[in-house]
From TrEMBL:
This is Putative binding-protein-dependent transporter inner membrane subunit. GO terms for biological process: transmembrane transport. It is a multi-pass membrane protein. GO terms for cellular component: plasma membrane. It is found in: Cell membrane. The chain crosses the membrane at residues 30-58, 93-114, 126-147, 174-198, 281-303.
């Protein structure tokens, strides 16, 4: 009689475990535990201040006495009785129209130049990005004021060419342009995003276009811009929102007054003046909510119009379906 050896069977992978997923409530509870720091921070630092600001926009509040309810009085005064408010709106819109296109155009031009650089691309990218880190500081804004002041660097350079403009910050037509140029100088962030988008465009497209006889401008217009349109749209929305909230350059260049002749009286600067200088915090809160609504409307318009000029890689596939 011979004994036959039996091969031991492997233990199940879930041996020693129940093999059951935890209940849905336990999974949700764990998720809320990990999300609780963000929820707490958003509630205390964002949602609660927004709710208080919305309430204050319907009150007369000077930060020293209890707020008194006035209904829509602040909004009515803003739109019908305050000429400086409308000058701040005009200055801000003019600044946005000048600064944003110039900044994006310069950022795209530098990104196109860096794309063809073979050596030291990391160094140039960091060097061009540095102004975006420094430009928002008060110290750089004060240096910018000195550069464009009467007898400053720009004034002396223009005098060599026979252009006697004088100090830019002392002239209503030139002060806003000086502030806009400070924003244009901070083109590093959109430049890096443009450069990343350019590197995603297949080189075969340019090779095929070159074989068909397309020149540089035709390739840029027919290949680069359409393929880069999602990145261009992203930068346009981001920089437009930031431009509506500009404060530090205007405050430094005008000394916090928005001059000369309210040419640099940007919306946020006037909001600061009403809230913290004149102690009309209820009025300033109403201005803040109007600004939020205006940014939301402008962003919605940009998204709506983007359907006619922004092209995504899967658009053709979706249309085919």
């Amino acid at each position: 009689m011979t004994a036959t050896a039996t091969r031991p069977q492997p233990a199940p992978a879930n041996a020693g475990r129940s093999g059951k997923r935890p209940p849905k409530r336990e999974r949700q509870g764990a998720a809320w535990v990990f999300l609780s720091p963000w929820v707490l921070g958003a509630s205390v630092l964002t949602l609660l201040p927004m709710a208080v600001s919305l309430y204050l926009s319907f009150t007369n509040y000077d930060m020293f006495n209890d707020p008194s309810w006035v209904g829509f009085r602040n909004y009515v005064q803003m739109f019908t009785e305050d000429p400086r408010y409308w000058r701040s709106v005009t200055s801000t819109l003019t600044y946005v129209v000048i600064a944003v296109p110039l900044q994006l155009a310069l950022a795209l031009a530098v990104a196109l130049a860096l794309k063809s650089v073979k050596r030291g691309k990391g160094f140039y990218r960091s060097a061009f990005y540095a102004p975006s880190l420094l430009g928002a500081s008060m110290s750089i804004a004060l240096v910018w004021r000195a550069v464009f002041n009467d007898g400053g660097t720009v004034d002396n350079m223009l005098s060599w060419f026979g252009l006697d403009i004088g100090g830019w910050i002392n002239k209503p037509g030139w002060a806003l342009l000086a502030v806009a140029l400070l924003t244009v100088w901070q083109f590093g962030a959109p430049m890096v995003i443009f450069l990343a988008g350019l590197q995603q465009i297949p080189g075969e497209l340019y090779e095929a276009a070159a074989m068909d006889g397309a020149g540089w401008w035709r390739q840029f217009r027919s290949i680069t811009l359409p393929m880069l349109s999602p990145v261009l749209f992203f930068n346009l929305v981001l920089q437009t929102i930031q431009a509506f909230q500009v404060f530090t350059p205007a405050f430094a260049v005008s000394g916090g007054k928005g001059g000369p002749a309210d040419s640099t009286l940007f919306y946020t600067l006037y909001l600061y003046d009403r809230g913290f200088t004149a102690s009309h915090m209820g009025y300033a809160s109403a201005m803040a909510w109007v600004l939020l609504a205006a940014i939301g409307i402008v962003t919605a318009v940009l998204f709506r119009t983007s359907r006619s000029w922004v092209f995504y890689a899967n658009d053709d596939n979706e249309e085919a379906r």
